[in-house]
Each structure stands twice: as C-alpha cells, then as structure tokens.
Design goal:
mainly alpha, 69% helix, 5 helices
Length: 90
C-alpha cells in the first residue's frame, strides 16, 4: 500500500506549497519560482502527475481529492465549450 513516505522531497514540497497556497492571494507564479525553483509550467505539470498517484493521496487526501475534483470540473467545462453546449451541469 503506498504511503506518504513513497514521495520524494520535491513531491512533498509541491504538495505542501499547494496546501499552503489555498486561500491566499498574490503572485503564485513568483512564489513557485522563489520557493520551489521551478517554472510555473513545470510546477503544474508535476502537480498534475502527482495528484494521480496513490502516494500523494495517502499524504494529503483532502488536498489531492480537491485538486482532482477541480481538474475534472475544468476538463468537463472545456468539453462543454468545445461541443458548443451552453447548458451548465447541475
């Protein structure tokens, strides 16, 4: 069974950063560069892959499930726009 111990330091830092950023305003992209030494594009690539892992889910289930839900909602919205549907999901 995967555990939080299966994450490397960078993965733990990404999850911690994302968890701490919730509800904060400001320049997230600048903070990503300063705190994680990553470009924002690379950060979001890594975060997207990370939240699909069982280890990340074990490390912070609330955060990972929220991020998965937000990603899935955005993907569904893009599909609705691409298909020309103006009806909103209920």
């Amino acid at each position: 069974m995967p555990s939080a111990l299966d994450l490397d330091d960078r993965d733990r830092a990404i999850l911690a950063f994302e968890a701490s950023w919730t509800g904060h305003g400001g320049a997230k992209e600048e903070a990503i560069r300063a705190q994680l030494a990553l470009t924002p594009a690379r950060y979001y690539q890594l975060l997207g892959r990370l939240i699909d892992t069982e280890a990340a889910l074990a490390a912070d289930p609330l955060l990972v499930n929220r991020l998965r839900r937000v990603r899935d909602e955005r993907a569904a919205a893009r599909l609705r726009v691409a298909s020309g549907s103006t009806e909103t999901a209920r």
